[in-house]
Write a structure and sequence with these properties.
The protein is α+β, with helices and mostly antiparallel strands and 212 residues long. It is built from three helices and 14 strands. The relative contact order is 0.19.
């Protein structure tokens, strides 16, 4: 092997190694998003996703007082949605089948890369156009430097090879909610963060209807 070929070969190996080391599996830690409603210039709330292996906790706290926490356990496929109704604390149990039905609208998402890029929470992000069932979609921004171990984090974007750090979703009220990541922490988390807090009662949909 002559010197020139050897130099080219070593350069290729170096680039390949850099690509591998730059990409990390996001298996434990948290992502904090600022939440903007209906195009607001100021944050209207905070959304935090915490992950530990097969467990995911999502916490939404809005400035208007609305709060919701969901805890997902990949082992049993169940999700608990925690809510407070006056003095009553309850956790609605959602089965794996119910969750699949709820997220069915995301199954056939079409992801199309765009040429747009930006830096979010210290990570280089690429643009991706997302369409659902031929409906005109929005552009999201994601980093390929962090790849979720648990694909359930990307429920809205199946097949996304990375972590979405800016995206928008439509509300039932026909408004919009935009999420922009502000901080990402890759660290060990306590298992207790993913356990149902004391004082909460697990209820069915029928029981929940009677409570309202």
């Amino acid at each position: 092997m002559n010197i020139m070929v050897r130099i080219v070969w070593m350069a290729c190996l170096s680039l390949f190694a850099t690509s591998i080391t730059a990409q990390k599996i996001f298996s434990e830690g948290s992502v904090r998003y600022d939440v903007y409603v209906d195009g607001s210039a100021e944050s209207n709330g905070v959304y935090v996703i915490s992950v530990k292996g097969g467990m995911i906790k999502r916490e939404l706290a809005m400035n208007n007082g609305y709060n919701n926490i969901t805890i997902y356990n990949q082992k049993n496929g169940k999700t608990l949605s925690l809510n407070v109704n006056e003095d009553q604390k309850y956790a609605l149990e959602i089965s794996e089948e119910e969750l699949k039905e709820k997220n069915k609208r995301f199954e056939h998402a079409v992801l199309t890369p765009t040429s747009n890029t930006k830096k979010i929470a210290g990570f280089s992000c690429s643009g991706m156009k997302v369409q659902y069932d031929q409906v005109e979609g929005n552009e999201i921004f994601y980093t390929s430097d962090l790849v979720p171990l648990n694909e359930s984090i990307n429920t809205m974007f199946p097949g996304l090879k990375g972590l979405a750090l800016e995206y928008e979703t439509k509300l039932a009220s026909k408004g919009t909610m935009r999420f922009v990541a502000k901080a990402i922490e890759i660290k060990s988390l306590d298992n207790n963060q993913f356990v149902l807090p004391t004082g909460y009662k697990i209820v069915t949909k029928e029981e929940l209807k009677n409570m309202k």
